[in-house]
Amino acid sequence: MTRFTVNNQPVHYKMDPDTPLLWALRDASNLTGTKYGCGTGACGACTVDIDGEAVRSCQRTIAAVEGSFVTTIEGLSRERTHPAQMALIAGNVVQCGFCIPGIVMAASVLLKKNRNPSEDDIRAGITNLCRCGIYPRLIEAILLAASVQRGDETIDAPPAPGTSPADAAREVPALMPRNR
């Protein structure tokens, strides 16, 4: 049996129990935000949250997650309002975007466990690879996300999915310090 919960929905995959979770999510559930990068667990593009842990889904079989709660980028926040998503957008971190879903998922797990991470905590917790080299901006964005999550700062919501580029340019997220 391969029954578990994905994005708060119970699922039962009628696939080989040795199927990597990545392919069950992408092919059977059409949750394509979880990306295939290297297939070896090194890059982190396939990172999902399994029971509060950042896990490389290419390295976990569906049998191994029996009874677990899995959250993918689609289940984190469809409106892109999770502090990690908003901070990456506000900090202009996203370049090609391929690695971003896995990075956001790793960041969301880090921020659940540590509301006030240091730069070293972020480097240790976000081991995902990015070919665009976003690391300095990424660290700043995760620090901002932690600040937003604690309520120290706010970020205007990003443009809604499907917003035209011209409209999005008029709605650039702005950092707004709170009580400073």
UniProtKB/TrEMBL annotation:
<dbReference type="InterPro" id="IPR001041">
    <property type="entry name" value="2Fe-2S_ferredoxin-type"/>
</dbReference>
<keyword id="KW-0408">Iron</keyword>
<dbReference type="InterPro" id="IPR012675">
    <property type="entry name" value="Beta-grasp_dom_sf"/>
</dbReference>
<feature type="domain" description="2Fe-2S ferredoxin-type">
    <location>
        <begin position="1"/>
        <end position="76"/>
    </location>
</feature>
<dbReference type="InterPro" id="IPR036010">
    <property type="entry name" value="2Fe-2S_ferredoxin-like_sf"/>
</dbReference>
<dbReference type="InterPro" id="IPR002888">
    <property type="entry name" value="2Fe-2S-bd"/>
</dbReference>
<keyword id="KW-0411">Iron-sulfur</keyword>
<keyword id="KW-0560">Oxidoreductase</keyword>
<feature type="region of interest" description="Disordered">
    <location>
        <begin position="154"/>
        <end position="180"/>
    </location>
</feature>
<keyword id="KW-0001">2Fe-2S</keyword>
<dbReference type="InterPro" id="IPR036884">
    <property type="entry name" value="2Fe-2S-bd_dom_sf"/>
</dbReference>
<keyword id="KW-0479">Metal-binding</keyword>
<dbReference type="InterPro" id="IPR006058">
    <property type="entry name" value="2Fe2S_fd_BS"/>
</dbReference>
<protein>
    <submittedName>
        <fullName>(2Fe-2S)-binding protein</fullName>
    </submittedName>
</protein>
<dbReference type="Pfam" id="PF00111">
    <property type="entry name" value="Fer2"/>
</dbReference>
<dbReference type="Pfam" id="PF01799">
    <property type="entry name" value="Fer2_2"/>
</dbReference>
<dbReference type="InterPro" id="IPR051452">
    <property type="entry name" value="Diverse_Oxidoreductases"/>
</dbReference>
